[in-house]
Amino acid sequence: PRIVARIAGALVGISIVLWSAWSMVAVFVVLDRRPRTDDANVTAHVVGVAAHVGGYVSRVAVVDNQPVKQGDLLVEIDARPYEIALSDAKAKLALSEFEVRELEDRIVVAGAAIEAKHADAEYARQYLARIEPLLARQFVTPDQVEDAKRAVKVAEAKLVESEAELRRARNSLAQLGDVNVRIAAAKAAVDKAQLDLDYCSIRSPVDGFVTNMAVSPGRYVRSGEQLFALVDGSRWFVVANFLETEIARVKPGAAVEVWLMAYPGHPFRGTVQGLAWAVTPSETRDVGALPAPSPTLDWVRLAQRFPVRIVLDPFDPAFPYRMGATATVIVDTQTRREIPAWIERTIPDWIRGVPLEPETRPPGSDL
Question: Which of 207, 228, 249 is the last residue of a domain?
Fold first, then answer.
């Protein structure tokens, strides 16, 4: 019995050693061909919804977490002040058009007056030129000559006055080429008032989901004040942090398998969009514009982790994505390292890199 026990113990020990060696090879294969990480989360673009104009909220057309389409009405602001402003701007536009027509008539009248004054001045000069030679022969008196000279000066002064009146009318008209500045300014005021009125209806800029809704009718909002946010549902991503020892095998365009903790039996697909070019080193935290994933502290020197952005395929409505969800990411590197064939034949397909079936669950997915 002792010999049998010793032999059995030896066989068990040998089996454990062989199993350990096989397990190391299997782990080597899966990590080499299919880098994976549990340090990943689902994310999406977040669009802040803000008021373009100030006023009291008259209606809230959505509720928190509601899906919306681009162009859907979200919130209405009391439009009455902006309707009045639009009516006032339109009235001022009509008044400006009337004033412009009046100034155009004044310009026509001033032009005709200039022609008349020019004719009067020309006649006065000609009359003076006729009678001046007659003074030496005493056919006219000196007073008549002086009166003629005075008439010339008066006619020329009236001509200058008419020309100045024409310039004033043209300046008041404010015509620059084919554009009348008065009317252009009035039309711009109408457009601005119409835009402000349109802004009273806040509409969704994207297809997405309402989040953090805290607006109710009667609340006064200021221009530029953010009211709530929309999660853009058109594109979803996973940001996965891979060790720097692994990212050399992760390439843009590589196929990715994603497992979400919320749906443990359902795999998702995606594509690597790109790898981060920089992160903040753990020793320095002064570059706020760079991502700074926190390493797991240990007594050994730790490899830095770099965020990898993965574009997810459109989801099944039965399994919707949620921003912030915990994910496990497995990247198909399409690479193979030479190992003995007899060892590779003993490794299951899911370890060798064959895509997992939807009902198959990877090891560690229940963590």
Answer: 228
pLDDT tens for 233-252 read: 999 999 999 999 888 889 99
Largest CA distance in the chain: 172
Determine the distance from the C-alpha atom of residue 270 to the mean position of all C-alpha atoms in its chain, rounded to a whole number: 25
Q: Which helix (H) or strand (E) holds 171?
A: helix 142-173
C-beta of residue 41 within 8 angstroms of C-beta of residue 200: no
- Write out the DSSP string of 60-90: E---TT-EE-TT-EEEEE--HHHHHHHHHHH
In angstroms, the Cα distances linking 26 to 134, 165, 260, 361 are 132, 99, 24, 17
Reported as a single tens digit per residue, the pLDDT across 46-59 is: 999 999 999 999 99
CATH label of the domain that carries residue 64 = 2.40.50.100
- List the domain range (segments joined by +) for residue 148: 81-196
Give dist(CA 196, CA 4) in Å, integer.
93
CA dist., res. 141 & res. 291, Å (int): 104
pTM listed for this prediction: 0.66
